[in-house]
Amino acid sequence: MERAANLILTTGSLLVGGGILFKSFFYTVDGGQRGLIFDRFQGVKETVYGEGMHFFIPVIQSPIVAEVRLQPKTVASHTGTKDLQTVDIAIRMLHKPIESYLPEIYKTIGLNYEEKILPSIANEVLKAVVAQYDADQLIKMREKISQEIKEGLIERAKEFKIVLDDVSITHLGFMKEYAQAIEAKQVAQQLAERQKFIVLRDEEEKNAKVILSEGESEAARLINDAVKQYGTAQIEIKKLETAKHIAEQLAKSPNITWVPTGNGVSNLLNLKTF
């Protein structure tokens, strides 16, 4: 009985030990990652391993796991504009390595390329692009400048076998004095636009009064001509016809009552009081 128990214990120990030993010959690559092998005799092998479990020889070889998912990186730069204004600008990039070049990246840069390469090329491109524009152009042409920065960074990153999927300006700031000057300029422009609107409005009102005056003068002239040509009888007929037309239109409303006063057409209509 004791012998059987010892046999079971020994077998169990061998299985556990064998499992541990077996596991030590394999490493796992998770989703969004790629694997490399560093060989003590051959260096970094050129094979890039995908997701799953992979074999390696302990002591002689060491597994290396690299991230290949898009990751964010923000870089801030302190630079100058064409008109010698100091500007603080920050950009955000989404980056990842080109998988097939992972062995080369590891050999030449290391897997922490985002700390060694991205800040350097970002500052280089930012300084080159910003120096082409005046400070006020950075505000007015922000979208265009952002696109130029993006294109420049993508091209530079390719030289290091890095993919940039998105680049955007997240911060744009100027020295306090210049920022205050910009704000004052914007306020002045708003006041100028308001004053321009007031002048145009007054001009329109003036023109309207002139047109009204000219119309009244023309009406008076036509009446005088009519009196000379037809006498006052024809004009009275026109007045009666006009009053009749107005009475017919207003009589359709339930709130208006027609009252004949007998003293002319000026009091032809009286409104009800509620």
TrEMBL record:
It holds the Pfam family Band_7. InterPro entries: Band_7 (IPR001107), Band_7/SPFH_dom_sf (IPR036013), Prohibitin (IPR000163). Keywords: Membrane, Mitochondrion, Mitochondrion inner membrane. Residues 25-186 form the Band domain. SUPFAM superfamilies: Band 7/SPFH domain. One of its GO terms (biological process) is mitochondrion organization. GO terms for cellular component: mitochondrial inner membrane; mitochondrion. CDD domains: SPFH_prohibitin. Transmembrane segments: none annotated. It is found in: Mitochondrion inner membrane. Its main location: mitochondrion. Belongs to the prohibitin family. This is Prohibitin. It comes from Paramecium tetraurelia.
